[in-house]
Amino acid sequence: MNKHLxxxxxxxxxxxxIALGVWASSNSSDEKAPLFxxxxxxxANEIWYTANFNANGxxxxxxxxxxFWLKKTAQNRTEPLTWIQRHLAYGIKVLKxxxxxxxxxFVSYPNRSFVMRNHNNSYQxxxxxxxxxxxxxxxxxxxxxxxxxxxxxxxxxxxxxDPNTGNCTIEIIKP
Length: 175
Known about the structure:
Layout: H1 3-26, E1 36-40, E2 43-51, E3 65-71, E4 77-80, H2 83-89, E5 92-98, E6 101-106, E7 109-119, E8 122-129, E9 132-146, E10 151-161, E11 168-173
Parallel strand pairs: 1-9
Antiparallel strand pairs: 1-2, 2-3, 3-4, 5-6, 6-7, 7-8, 8-9, 9-10, 10-11
C-alpha cells in the first residue's frame, strides 16, 4: 500500500474509533456495542458481532457470539442473517469454547482464527496480523463484481488496534 493511502487509512481508523465511542455512549445501555463489525462497499449496512453471555457473565457455551445485520439504510433496524449468509459467508464456526475464551473462524475463510477473551474488563476479539496480535475493530470487504452467490472480492481490509500501544493497524488481504 502506498504511503499516502496508508496515512489516510490510519486517520480514518482514528476518526472511526472516536465516532464509535460517541455512538456507544449516546445509545441506551441495553444495546450492545459490537466486538467488531464487517462493512462492504455495496451499501452502508454492516454485519455486527456481539458477545453473548450466560448468567455468570462468561460467554455462552452454545452461542458465544451473536451475528446480525445493522441495516443503516433502514433506520438502523437489526435483522438476523439468512441461512445462506450464516452458513456460507458471515457466520462463524466455534473451534474451542472455554469459560473465558472462545476461538472461532469465519465459515467462509478458515485460513485465520480469532479469539474472543476478556481484556481490560471487556470482551474483545484478537487475531494475528502482520506477525503481531491485534484487537479486531472492523473488517471491510471490497466487492468488485461477481454474483450474489459468488462475489468477486478484490481485497479485505482488517482494521485493528495494537493492545500494547493503542496504535491503529491495517492489514490489506488480497484473496
